Design the sequence.
């Protein structure tokens, strides 16, 4: 007897879950940095082109592969008879497993920083030393277990009652908190300079190849592509939902969060005198050294620091559940275990796999040596393995599913994409660009480790001359908000009304 | 226990790469067993 496969219960639940996968730490701690570095609001132009030209198609490929086969990544590749399908599909389970192992360690730091902010633990200390001491403390073991238990218990409850319900709470709350922190940040005296730094159009950036490379990498990684997460979430999509409009809604929602994050970070940094410090930092350095410094001096910093880390934790947890899910789906689909049993089993293995990264924190020395193992794993999994699996997913749809794949994209869709255009794009353009991401990541790694001399130029320090708010910035702010927020609201309302209409017709 | 080795660059690379290879091979092996068992159960 074959059991009926789980699906998302509601359309809104599906959109929040997909956005939960896509909105992660990268949106908050990388996108604003890239905007500031590569020409302010002009960075949005290559970003939009790459997002709608490349990334959205790559995402649709993963959804198609998942929905058509209704299997876990391994089963999906096997079912469409992809050469070495099981070996490649297995990577869609093992890859995210390793990714989760270190991602959850970072998520647990974020969770610790919620308490640290509310209690003011890092207030009045050197934030870098505080973070280094935390990495070598016993608290890390506790928060690590808490984080794993949190994601595993959400997953144990199932797709509808677990993932969907959790994301329905987490994602809207994340947006509300982001808006709250952004309002606080923008209303600080002298905050406009930060907005200027973030969004003043500097057209020279658009003619720089590095800007386009950065945009391409960001759009690919921000949508959580190539890690089996979108594929497995796609397998829970209902057949009556059209893919293009939903994909549009998710990508626009994801970008809206990224843009808001910049409003939460830069204005506060410039208003409180950290403008120079914030210009050149991203990721871990930004979240755990520089931002705590800002919250220290911010009025009501305890509260806003806590709120900021809560929203960061929501982003991290909602992404973490999606990368733990492929393994659970495999245990459920192929081994026949229950969800609860699979969740506990994966949680134990993942806890064990995360331990080396935690023990690394006990090594004496600077942050660099404490994060040595984690950064190496990130190079292999986060930068190299992800584009490879992404390429395979696109090739699988483009060349091995044939017309089934192209038809699946437009199946039951109100707004369809022309088939010949989809064919050309998925067969040639998108895989070529994703291959480019892989090659550039590889070159960057070899270049940074000194194996090869520099090939990709680095533009160096960010130079910002304060000029007060300019009309160009105001125009770009309006343009970006109308485009992304307006687009997100329009597409989401549209897909939700389509579903309502369908329900009504069914009843009649 | 001396944990300093974890920060050693060479050891780090060997550790990370071998961990991935071992786990991936083990998983493939496990899948074959599961597949066989599943087929037997089906028939």
Sequence:
């Amino acid at each position: 007897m074959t059991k009926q496969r789980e699906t998302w219960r509601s359309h809104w639940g599906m959109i929040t879950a997909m956005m939960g996968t896509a909105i992660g730490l990268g949106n908050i701690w990388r996108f604003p940095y890239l905007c500031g570095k590569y020409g302010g609001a002009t960075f949005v132009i290559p970003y939009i082109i790459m997002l709608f030209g490349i990334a959205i198609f790559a995402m649709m490929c993963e959804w198609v592969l998942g929905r058509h086969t209704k299997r876990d990544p391994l089963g999906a590749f096997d079912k469409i008879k992809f050469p070495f399908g099981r070996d490649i599909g297995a990577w869609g389970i093992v890859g995210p497993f390793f990714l989760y192992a270190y991602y959850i360690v970072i998520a647990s730091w974020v969770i610790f920083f919620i308490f640290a902010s509310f209690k003011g633990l890092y207030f009045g200390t050197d934030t870098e030393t505080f973070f280094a001491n935390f990495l070598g403390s016993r608290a890390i073991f506790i928060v690590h277990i808490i984080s794993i238990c949190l994601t595993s218990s959400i997953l144990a409850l199932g797709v509808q009652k677990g993932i969907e319900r959790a994301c329905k709470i987490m994602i809207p709350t994340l947006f509300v908190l982001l808006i709250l922190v952004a309002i606080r940040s923008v209303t600080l005296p002298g905050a406009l300079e930060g907005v200027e730094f973030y969004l003043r159009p500097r057209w020279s950036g658009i003619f720089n190849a590095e800007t386009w490379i950065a945009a391409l990498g960001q759009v690919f990684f921000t949508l959580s592509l190539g890690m089996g997460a979108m594929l497995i979430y796609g397998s829970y999509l209902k057949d009556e939902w059209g893919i293009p409009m939903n994909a549009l809604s998710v990508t626009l929602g994801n970008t809206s969060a990224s843009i808001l994050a910049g409003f939460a970070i830069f204005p506060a940094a410039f208003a409180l005198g950290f403008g120079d410090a914030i210009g050149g930092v991203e990721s871990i350095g930004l979240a755990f050294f520089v931002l705590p410094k800002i919250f220290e001096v911010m009025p009501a910093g305890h509260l806003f620091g806590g709120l900021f880390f809560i929203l960061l934790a929501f982003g991290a947890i909602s992404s973490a559940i999606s990368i733990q899910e492929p393994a659970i789906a495999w245990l459920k689909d192929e081994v026949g275990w229950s969800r609860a049993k699979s969740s506990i089993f994966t949680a134990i293995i993942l806890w064990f796999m995360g331990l080396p990264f935690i023990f690394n924190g006990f090594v004496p020395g600077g942050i660099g040596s404490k994060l040595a193992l984690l950064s190496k794993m990130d190079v292999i999994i986060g930068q190299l393995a992800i584009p490879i699996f992404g390429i395979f997913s696109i090739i699988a749809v483009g060349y091995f599913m044939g017309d089934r794949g192209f038809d699946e994209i437009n199946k039951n869709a109100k707004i369809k994409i022309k088939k010949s255009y989809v064919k050309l794009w998925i067969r040639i353009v998108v895989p070529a660009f994703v291959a480019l991401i892989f090659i550039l990541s590889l070159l960057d790694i070899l270049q940074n480790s000194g194996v090869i001399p520099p090939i990709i130029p680095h533009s160096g320090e960010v130079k910002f001359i304060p000029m007060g708010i300019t009309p160009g910035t105001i125009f770009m702010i309006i343009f970006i908000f109308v485009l992304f927020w307006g687009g997100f609201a329009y597409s989401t309302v549209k897909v939700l009304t389509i579903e309502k209409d369908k329900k009504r017709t069914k009843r009649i | 226990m001396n944990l300093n080795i974890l920060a050693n660059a060479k050891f780090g690379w060997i550790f990370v790469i071998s961990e991935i290879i071992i786990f991936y091979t083990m998983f493939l092996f496990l899948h074959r067993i599961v597949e066989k068992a599943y087929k037997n159960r089906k028939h």
